[in-house]
Amino acid sequence: MLKILGVFIILLWTVSAHGMGYSNLKKYSYYNRKQIHKLPINNNIVYKLNTAFGFISVITLPTIPLDVVIGDSNAFSYYTLGSQIFVRPKSYNKKVSTNMEILTKFGLINIEIEITSKKDVAYDLDLAKPGQSFFYKNYIEHKLRKLENKLKMQYTAKYKTIAAMKQKVAQNKIYVEKLILSINKEKINASANKHNISFTAIYKSKIGNKYYIRYMISNSTNNYVIVHDLYLYDSSSAWYGASSKKEVRILNPVLNLKLMPREVYKGYIVYNDKNANDLSMHLYVNGKLTIIKVKL
């Protein structure tokens, strides 16, 4: 895994180094007598480190590195201690150079190491002061992404738990409702049939202040049937169309229920008028309106 990472980072350096600037070479001048170079970490910078045979140079970082990979391990050796990396050349050849890629929690740091004369050796490349660098920004964004993903996972788990509880409560509610309806039910078994389609009111029941009528629609034809709506009236009213009718509002209206051929459908009509006892179903068979009436 480390070998693959090393190849990847070397390739990354090869591509990115051509698009990056270098740290200020004047800071490495012997005549400026700056063997310790305090440089801020900035974006798109390749930091140069001058070394010489018989000398050790130190790279000081703002944090302990996660991983360090060097391009030419035959010409250079390095040792990591805390947030510092000690680099030592193994060769006198001043034409030898390599790259070092340092992975930190702030991001990737690119170093170019070159063997020079001893007068140009950089004793300490001090990058411990990031300043207004993109590394801190990357680190904060990384932390925010991790926190966001963590919160998403937590809320997803909570949502699934709540959804499961909701489903369980709904199932329990249905079970309890059916149980109460079965205890309080008053049988009706009133039925009517037209064009091989039957409409049956099975029983009436009550939960709290609401009334329920259990009904069944049986489509014995080979055609699709569309139940446009159900209508309910009180005991003193006439059928649909009469001027004296008093329609009872159905709390759960059935609109455009499509029945497959040879299909049986069962449902409930919920309402709040105890006097309602006349029921009609308006449906379309082959595009024609058909009304089936049931006296409760």
What does this structure look like?
With 296 residues, the protein is of the alpha+beta class. It has two domains: 136 residues, Sandwich (Immunoglobulin-like), CATH 2.60.40; 112 residues, Sandwich (Immunoglobulin-like). Strands 1-3-9-8-5 form a five-stranded mixed β-sheet. A hairpin with a 2-residue loop joins strand 18 and strand 19.
Features:
2 domains, 5-stranded mixed sheet, disordered N terminus, rod-shaped, 296 residues, 23% helix, Immunoglobulin-like, alpha+beta
Summed up:
The protein is an alpha+beta fold and 296 residues long. It has two helices and 19 strands. The chain has a five-stranded mixed β-sheet with strand order 1-3-9-8-5. The protein has a five-stranded mixed β-sheet with strand order 2-10-4-7-6, with no helix packed on it. Strands 14, 15, 16, 18 and 19 form a five-stranded antiparallel β-sheet that branches.
Indicate the CATH topology of the largest domain.
Immunoglobulin-like
Q: What amount of the residues lies in strands?
A: 35-45%
Summed up, the helix count is 2
Based on the structure given, which CATH architecture of the largest domain is correct? Sandwich
Q: What fraction, in percent, of the residue positions are helical?
A: 10-25%
How many discrete domains? 2
| Classification by helices and strands | alpha+beta
Q: How are strands sequenced across the largest beta sheet?
A: 1-3-9-8-5
CATH class category label of the largest domain: Mainly Beta
Order of helices and strands: HEEEEEEEEEEHEEEEEEEEE
Which regions contain 5 or more consecutive residues with pLDDT less than 50? 1-20, 25-33
Overall radius of gyration: 42 Å
Question: Main beta sheet, described?
Answer: 5 strands, mixed
Count of β-strands: 19
